[in-house]
Amino acid sequence: MGGERRDRIVALDKRHVWHPYTPMGPYIAATDPLVIDRAEGCTLFDVDGRAFLDANASWWTSNLGHRHPRLVAALERQAGRLCHAPLAGITHEPAAELALALVRAAPDGLEHVFYSDDGSTAVEVAMKLALQFWAQNGRPERRRFVALDGAFHGETLGVTALGGVEVFRRPFAGVLLECVHVPSPGDPASYERAFDALARTIREGADTIAAVVLEPLVQGAAGMRVYAPEYLRLVRDLCTRHDVFLVADEVFTGYGRTGTMWACDRARITPDLLCTAKGMSGGMLPMAATLATRRIFEGFLGDPSRAFYYGHSFCGNPLGAAVALEVLRIYDEAKVVEGVSERAREIERAFSDLAELPFVARSRALGMIGALELEGDAGYLASAGWRVYLEALERGVYLRPLGNVVYVTPALTIPVADLRRLLRVVRESVEAARVPRPQA
Ligand SMILES: Cc1ncc(COP(=O)(O)O)c(C=O)c1O
Description:
Layout: H1 3-16, H2 24-30, E1 36-40, E2 43-46, E3 51-54, H3 57-60, H4 69-79, H5 93-105, E4 110-116, H6 119-136, E5 144-148, H7 157-160, H8 166-169, E6 179-182, H9 192-205, E7 209-214, E8 218-219, E9 225-226, H10 229-242, E10 245-249, H11 263-267, E11 273-276, E12 288-293, H12 294-298, H13 318-333, H14 340-354, E13 360-366, E14 369-374, H15 384-394, E15 397-398, E16 405-408, H16 416-434
Parallel strand pairs: 3-15, 5-6, 5-7, 7-10, 10-11
Antiparallel strand pairs: 1-2, 2-3, 4-12, 8-9, 11-12, 13-14, 14-16
Helix pairs in contact: 4-13, 5-13, 9-10, 14-16, 15-16
The structure holds pyridoxal-5'-phosphate (PLP).
């Protein structure tokens, strides 16, 4: 059905589009890409009219499903009034109302909202705020960061320093800010040793450390590594004791992904800086924010030279802000986070059963996240997950593995019947990917 249209798109794409996270040689030579045409709820449709359940909510963004009618209406309403205005020294209603709504939704004590464009810039802002705060508030030697092994905080050059995924970091290793990587807290039962290593690093180096940055409760890109809320509580206490900032990167975990609005809520902590993006605008537009405590905000007051001279053309963009405000209203009115527990039980049960399969090394689940590790090569470039990806596509599910980790992160509002089908297909695809295909 896509016919000529599909052929033209693929030809243009292969001639001109340089894809993210994609080895382009094999892609151009051998990949027959999905060509997505439209989406509805939790389903993507390609140009041939084939339907695919979206197992990862479009890179963890479409938490309310695709093209939510209220979000589309909010976008249209705002587009009829104001599409863009710079936020430097002037303002507009969507930015102001969204800031209030974010402060109300965030852990207590985060009172100021700095807007940016995406998850990477939200963390970049947090790093720069921390560096500048210390530089102009009596501790200029605090210039190093601490992050977890396997961490992922985005792709700008600043945040690349925090990254612990070797293949993303290696090309830039010689030019990065200084960051100490400490052991990942591992599975929920074994975080103490990792915490001891972090505590040692902070004790010995607090005078030179600007901030500890972490993905609270789940290290997403590392392969959905889940760890204990107790670790977060201990880190919060440690940072407070040594007056080191704690940055919670909630770009993936925020907006209910782990079963509470923020992963920090599970540990009942307030970080000094909280980064949010992705689900913030429901997968509709690039939009991000870094929330800060009053102490940090006040550290930039006084002489104009102390201001935060940083911004992007689209900071607090009215379209994105109007949509993000509507996202929070929907969360509130439709009790979206409360709806997670029923679905989370389905995910937990299915992934616990999957762990029994002989070629599954281990599995884990938390909130709207289920993940399993296939036996064999580990790491981002491992190919086992891609065999499962192809099997799932044949069965009408789009999932994107992380190396040998196959995971689901569907919309929080996915209908339970669709979720069950998704989980069934994951199982069938994992089984099929490991059974040698009969010779034709
Ligand atoms: C925890 C975390 N932080 C930051 C980012 C970067 O976000 P973006 O891709 O929107 O720049 C990601 C992306 O996956 C992420 O998972």
